Structures are given as structure tokens and as C-alpha cells.
Amino acid sequence: DAADPCVMVIFGGTGDLTHRKLMPALYNLQHEKRLPKHFAVVAVGRRNKDHETYRYEVYDSIKNYARFKLHEHTWSELRRRIYYQKFDFNNDIGYIRLNTFLQKLDEQYRTRGNRIYYLAVAPEYFAVIVEKLYLHGMARNSGSWQRLVIEKPFGRDLDSARQLNEKITAVFDESNIYRIDHYLGKEMLQNIMVIRFANMLFEPVWNNRFIDNIQILSCEKVGVGSRGGYYEQAGALRDMLQNHMLQLLTLTAIEPPAGLDTKSIRDEKVKVLRSLEQFTPELVEQNVVRGQYGPGIVDNEEVPGYRQEERVSPTSNTETFIALKAHIDNLRWAGVPFYIRTGKRMPVKTTEIIIQFKPLPKILYAREYGHLQPNILIIKIQPREGVFFQFNAKKPGTECNIVPVQMDYCQNCREGVNSPAAYERLLFDVMRGESTLFARWDEVEYAWKFVDNIAAAWQTRQPGFPNYPAGSWGPREAAALLAGDNRNRLYKG
Ligand code: BG6
What we know:
The active site is at residue 244. Helices cover 37% and strands 20% of the residues.
């Protein structure tokens, strides 16, 4: 499908996300000739600057962050379609002026009144912007479409998420709301379903009869950097688990959908989230480990602890790490633990889904030769994209020695493979009205329900932070979650 003519308005046009992700994504789309022919983008922000100054800044961002090398010709095609407007999100006059400007662009670019409103702003502005768009007749116009793209965090718990949702659905129809979870735009996330449902080999064994446990990890080397102000309110629970980690879990565990259409896929995703075993305070105590990094060494460099970071309280109890053991209470997954782990300031940057198969019955080789390694399938999300499979084979020689061997398919190791960045795919999807890779309200709702139980249990207990040094695999208790279950420890902890 081609992208429709439209004007995209980015609220928060001078922010980090716009410069690092959105503008480079538009450039990449321009490079691939996938931007609509009739298209313009208006960045709005509180600072005063003219179009030219803004374009100049965008030029720098594209040079630094775009996937394709900056080409003057491609840039000039995008450049002239970029505009900047100074704007105060609370001020009605600004909306009136913006609307007039957008109507002018509609004529100039023949964009028919179609709009993408991208909210790349602090969450406290989400509701007010939406309300004002409505008040000024910019949101629900017949004969054209208006789509709302909303960044995370979508609320900070179920209640606040519900309130926000009520406000935005009072203005935009659910079908025009695109809740971003940028993990869904990653190449390998789409591949999870392809691997499962486009092979005869995997689906028949994708259940509790054959799978022993599933480990989902997303480790980062970076700390919170300059985002301390935001992160203090979020922590790993809200920043990573509520959205990205639960999306990974959902796609891994999903039942085959009735079709590949948006509704069928989302319906199945919601079923997984609804089947998640809900944590009681006792289960949180047993199955959830939180951590916060102290000073340590990453890549041979000394780095400060979380409490020493910019805009972080020196007595902060915000978690920068979470590990947990979850269960999905349905027939496919009953009894299979899903170990989830995510944290900042870990030794490597990696996101993977590790599927460990059950041990063989103690007959034949397993009886003769003792312990055999289990089969392991790893879906590698990033930085390497690919699939790894471990199985047992005979070591060449006159004796029968059985050793685990590996097949390792790396999709982005080959020369010339350059997977689209997540935001590129997601923006393109918004332009063509394809919302499969965005979170429907009920997905967000059930994710918060799960997360709220953990947050509530944590409130009643003080953590002993910091409890892992930067550059380590997290607190000892996290490794114990796996080891305590006698599960193979694939990752050092
Ligand atoms: C963001 C979080 O959503 O995801 C960040 O707010 C985190 O804290 C980032 O660093 C990780 O994304 P990626 O694509 O680098 O794995």
C-alpha cells in the first residue's frame, strides 16, 4: 500500500526523539521513495526559530542518525517540505495560527486536509494538545483523516492510563490512534510470528509439552544519561516491562491468529495478556527482583551509580533493573516459566528470546551418556538479528561422544543488509493507515494491570539499593530466580 497524502505535525519538534529518530526516519523514507508525493512536515516547539534554522539543525541530525548516508539531492527534496512553528501547547492562539498554516500547506502540497499529529512531548501535554486540537476543529473533519500518534508513557498506572485514554478517545476514534511501542517496529519482532507460523517445524513443538522455559532479555549498556527527570518517575518497570518486554512475551506466546489482519492479531495478543498469571504480593516477593546500579565499570570505563546521575535523587529508590518469572495460564503454556530480564548498565547490549526445550527422557543416549544439552532456539532481536539453534550431534571420531552443535543464522551480518529502523516502519504505517504494529487500548490496559500489581507490592517494602554494580548482570537474586528452579543458566548472573 502506498502512503496517503498528508501533513505531519510533530509536537515536540525540537526534542531528542524528533532529532534522533523521527527526522532520520523521514529521511530514510525519502531515500527509499516511500514518502507520499504530497507531503509536508511541520515541527512545532516552544523555542523561537525560523524554518531555515530548524532545517539546518535537522540536517545535522540526519547526518548523524539516518540509516542512509546523507545525499544532497535526497536531502533537498525533504528539506523544502520541512517547516517550523513556534508554539505554546496551552495557548489557543497558537492552534488557530497553526491551523491556518496547515490549511495553506494543504493547498500548496495538495494534502487534502489529512493530518498526522505526532505527540513527541512530555506526557503531561498529551491530553491538553488533544483537547485543543478538537476545540479548534483540527481533529475530526469529514472528507479527510486525522491520526494521532502518541508516544509512551501511556499513563503511569492503570488509572492514569484510563483517564488519558478517555480524553483521547473522546476526540479521536480508536482506529485513528497509534500508540507507539517502538519495539514493534523492529525487524525481528515481525519475524517472531513468521518463524512460528511460516515453518512446519516450530509450531507443533511450541507449547508446554516440548518447551521447558522461555527467557526474554533486553540488556542495555547505557545508563539513564540525561533522562533522569523522566526515569525517576518510570523505572525499569514502567519504562521497559510494561511495554517492550510484554510485547516480546506476547508475540512469543500468541496463539495462531485467524488471519494476518490487524484485528485478528491484536485479539490474540490481548488474550495472552489476559491469561498472564496476576501477581499477588507473595508472588512478587518470590518471583520478581528489582535492582539499581551502583558505580561500576562498563567497557573499561568507570561510570557513576544511578543515584549520582543528573536529575536523580541521591536516595532514589527507582529500579534500573527488573527480572521476573511469569506464567501464562492457558493450555498451551501452563507450567512453562517465562523469565524476563531487563536492565541498564549491563555488560552488553542485547535483546533476545531464548527458548529452551525439555530434557530428553533418560533412554538411549541420554541414559548411556548422562546429561545431554537441551535444544535451544534463540531469536536474536538486536544488535544481531537472526536465529540460533543448538542441537546434539556426534563428535567425529571412533568413540561416540555427543556434543551440542549450533546453527547460527545472522540476518544483518551480511554486507549490504541494512534493516529499516523501527521508527521508519512505524511512520510509514501511520501514513498508510496500518495499525497492526501499534498497541490497541486493551493491550495497554492489561499490561498495566499486570504491572500495577508489582508496583503495589513494591510500595510496601524498601529496596536495598544500589544492589548491582554497573557493568554486571544484575543483582544476585535475579540469577537465583533461574538457578533456584534448576534451570540452565545461559547468562551469567
Ligand atoms: C525506550 C526506553 O523506550 O527504549 C529507554 O525509554 C530504552 O530507556 C530504550 O533505552 C531501548 O530501546 P532500544 O531500541 O535501544 O532497545
